[in-house]
Amino acid sequence: MFDMMKMMGKMKEVQAKIKEAQDNLVNIKASGEAGGGMVKATVNGKKEVIELSFDDTLLKPEDKEMLQDLVVAAVNKANAEVEILAKEEMRKSTEGMIPNIPGLDLGGMFNG
C-alpha cells in the first residue's frame, strides 16, 4: 500500500540533497578561452565570473573593442562548460533519489 508519510519524508530528503548540491555549485569551476588563449575567463557553478586574465599584448586602447568581444566569448565558453559540470554534480548528488524517467528534465530545479 502507498505510504504517504514515507513519500513525504523521501521528498524532504531529496529537497535537502538538492539544496546541498546547489550550495556546493560555488566550488565547481570551469574556464573558457578566446583569441587563442589571449583572454581567459573562469566561472563557478553558479555562473559567476570569478577570474579574468588578459594577455599583455591586448592592453592597448586601440584594441578595446576586440578585447570586449574576446571577454564575452571567453565568459560564454566558461559558462557553457560549467553548466555541464554543474548538471553532472547535481545528477551525482541526487542519484538513486530521483527516478531516471526518459524525457523528465529536472534541470530547472537545479538553478539555485
From TrEMBL:
Record family assignment: Belongs to the YbaB/EbfC family.
SUPFAM superfamilies, per the entry: YbaB-like
The keyword Cytoplasm appears for this protein: yes
Keyword Metal-binding among record annotations: no
UniProt xrefs under Gene3D superfamilies: Nucleoid-associated protein YbaB-like domain
Cellular localisation: Cytoplasm, Nucleoid
Keywords: Coiled coil, Cytoplasm, DNA-binding
Main location per the UniProt record: cytoplasm
Function of the molecule: Binds to DNA and alters its conformation. May be involved in regulation of gene expression, nucleoid organization and DNA protection.
Protein's recorded name: Nucleoid-associated protein JR347_10340
Any Pfam family hit: YbaB_DNA_bd
InterPro entries hit by this protein: YbaB-like_sf, YbaB/EbfC
Subunit (UniProt): Homodimer.
PANTHER family: NUCLEOID-ASSOCIATED PROTEIN YBAB
HAMAP family to which the protein is assigned, alphabetical: DNA_YbaB_EbfC
Coiled coil: 4-31
GO CC annotations, alphabetized: bacterial nucleoid; cytosol
GO molecular function, one term: DNA binding
UniProt source species: Fulvivirga lutea
